[in-house]
Amino acid sequence: xxxxxxxxxxxxxxxxxxxxxxxxxxxxxxxxxxxxxxxxxxxxxxxxxxxxxxxxxxxxxxxxxxxxxxxxxxxxxxxxxxxxxxxxxxxxxxxxxxxxxxxxxxxxxxxxxxxxxxxxxxxxxxxxxxxxxxxxxxxxxxxxxxxxxxxxxxxxxxxxxxxxxxxxxxxxxxxxxxxxxxxxxxxxxxxxxxxxxxxxxxxxxxxxxxxxxxxxxxx
Amino acid sequence: xxxxxxxxxxxxxxxxxxxxxxxxxxxxxxxxxxxxxxxxxxxxxxxxxxxxxxxxxxxxxxxxxxxxxxxxxxxxxxxxxxxxxxxxxxxxxxxxxxxxxxxxxxxxxxxxxxxxxxxxxxxxxxxxxxxxxxxxxxxxxxxxxxxxxxxxxxxxxxxxxxxxxxxxxxxxxxxxxxxxxxxxxxxxxxxxxxxxxxxxxxxxxxxxxxxxxxxxxxx
DNA sequence: TGGTGTATTGACCATTTGGTCAATACATGG
DNA sequence: CCATGTATTGACCAAATGGTCAATACACCA
Lengths: 219, 219
Description:
Two copies of one chain form a homodimer. By secondary structure, chain A is an all-alpha fold. Chain A is built from twelve helices and no strands. In chain A, about 40% of the residues are buried.
């Protein structure tokens, strides 16, 4: 069914990988189908053969990206360990996964530019984040039971907080550099930032749910 | 020097405004020069007449955007008021400025996709953030002097923290919606998020600089 | 009043871009 | 061993795209 040295599976994967690089580097609109084909050393037709269209290829890239990102967060070993340590690991894993997968950030930003057109269609994404939320809820509960975390923390809100702190630093590196003249790429600075956001998250979990802090003037 | 009903200044502004909308909606690569011209009701040549090239127009849009964003943060009245209130206002102003200027977020993300190519050339951006950092430093100092803030907080780190919390929520609305099935656009939810991040930032400023929290295992 | 320079336009262009067609090579099942 | 279906390719296409040219209209200064 196939030509001599050909390996369809491998070809597909190669296209997916190179396409991810191209889409991440230039965005959906900036990415060129011809460029991807060239990167693959294949005739452009192969992309259409396997993925139908540029958009089809982009969707495949997106779904693969979500799976990769999920894999990075999945094995975050929190079972048994104490809540503070679990929280620390959650932050570290989230930051590491994003730092390792710059393409994911670029693709997510592109998706948001287009109002999440593709992401909203995919049911898989939702199923992917639910277990994460459950885990966080569990950690928070244990922390509260032990009397070291406040009891009024919503797991989604907490995850949003920590992913904001992890994501923004990596996503906006270059404009932040332009604004503050600091090289946020440097390993030492990244490490310091991770330490800081860990501090912040845990500090928040431990803080008193003081009404004076949360709304001094009412709202 | 000019045609009958023409007003070059106004024309320029109109182009800038419509171009901002187009670039923000589709990104630099996705934006079409013809589309901008059509939005303006002008011959495409006008864009080249005033801005030289698509990139020249984009740079003009970017610089205008930075100025607009700065204007939104400038009048954040912190003089005299107590540090906690000042911090609260800083967070509120930052969030409001970003919420009001969705185009700014889109443009910044696009810049980051291209590694801040244009932003890094502009000297004005840097000059724009320095006074903000100074103000924050001052607020932190007053808070520390009054014994209500910890003393080891770096102003840039603090600004990065709060802008992460404000920016990410707005920037990633759509993919977050896909992931959690929550409508983050809703006014009530936005208000709640602002309250939350304010809480978090102030809670952090007030927290003890406990070594046990920051690095329990050493690093 | 007539010349000069700017605002503005319609027509045009080379190149790029996403996408298609028809053909070829070949492994496998009947 | 031949028919079938898939992997793969070179050639090609219409449309879109960033950009340019030459011309026109008009306000202002000499």
